[in-house]
Structure formats: C-alpha cells, structure tokens
Design goal:
3 strands
Length: 81
C-alpha cells in the first residue's frame, strides 16, 4: 500500500477574490481578472454572488479618468443584519 500524502487544499478563486477585496486599498476589475483569469462579466457575477452570500462590497469611482472603479469588502456575512 502506498502512503497518502496530505496536500493542503488549493485556494479557490472565490477565496482569492475575497482576499483581494478585503485589502484596505481594495481591487479594481483588472486586478480581479488578472488574479482569477476570468472575463469581466464572470468577475462581476462573482461579486454579485459574494453580495448574495452576505458580503457588503462598496464600489468607489476611479480617481483618474483612465483607471477603473475600485471594489472593497466593507463587511462580511457575520456582521450582516
């Protein structure tokens, strides 16, 4: 019999999104696309899914005209009322 090696569970793309959105600076759509390899509509759908799960995600308009909006998680499902 072979020994089974324990491998740590891989990080899901949704977990990657949550981590990026939880940063103080948040993340723009391009950064979320780059981290996941998803199309823009898939990233926006994932944001909707996080909102449905109870996360509050704020959207801040771009400071510069050439940049995109920044998204940030401001509260999680445990603090939703």
């Amino acid at each position: 019999m072979s020994k089974s090696t324990l491998t740590p569970p891989r990080e899901t793309k949704t977990a990657i999104l949550r981590k990026l959105l939880s940063r103080k600076a948040g993340a723009d759509l391009a950064a979320l696309q780059s981290a996941t390899g998803w199309q823009p509509h898939s990233v926006r759908a994932a944001l909707s899914g996080l909102r449905k799960a109870g996360y509050r995600i704020d959207r801040v308009d771009p400071a510069k005209p050439d940049s995109g909006a920044v998204y940030r998680i401001t509260s999680g499902p445990e603090s939703a009322t």
